[in-house]
Design brief:
Oligomer: single chain
Order of helices and strands: HHHHHHH
């Protein structure tokens, strides 16, 4: 990634990527925890425990990939980032209703903040711009060097 691309990145994109990465790390951590507990313990339903482990790990890795994609201005990363937040909101609400406020409140706040950041006008404008042309122009300028001017 070029310095030019990094310097032009809006703070809203960085914030959305950071929040998405936090959720991804939490999901990977939870998946690892359930996997270890399943392996060393005696789960009531081993198939469900394995399913939760696989889904949490895959989802977390996917969220981390989306966070990286946002930072790299990959246009594909915006839709799955929005989708993960839209999935997180009902989960947060369910946790809130089951009086698990310590989990539901932070998840809901992070989901709303991520949606605001990734759907904000600066993020939208930056993510729909084709940055590959900017990088190619920069490479062409470097190849020409001072002699080409």
């Amino acid at each position: 990634m070029s310095k030019r691309l990094s310097a032009a990145r809006p703070a809203t994109v960085s914030a959305a990527a950071g929040l998405e990465a936090v959720e991804g790390l939490a999901a990977v951590g939870y998946g690892a925890y359930v996997g270890v507990e399943t392996a060393i313990g005696d789960p009531v339903d081993p198939m469900s425990a394995i399913g939760v482990t696989v889904l949490a790990l895959a989802g977390g890795i996917g969220m981390l990939a989306c966070a990286r994609g946002l930072l790299r201005a990959d246009q594909w990363s915006r839709a799955p980032t929005v989708l993960t937040q839209l999935f997180a909101l009902p989960v947060a609400w369910s946790l809130w209703q089951s009086e698990q406020f310590a989990l539901g409140l932070p998840l809901g706040i992070v989901a709303v903040l991520t949606l605001i950041a990734v759907l904000s006008p600066p993020s939208t404008a930056w993510l729909i711009t084709d940055h590959d042309e900017d990088e190619q122009d920069e490479r062409d300028e470097l190849a020409d060097g001072p002699a080409g001017k």
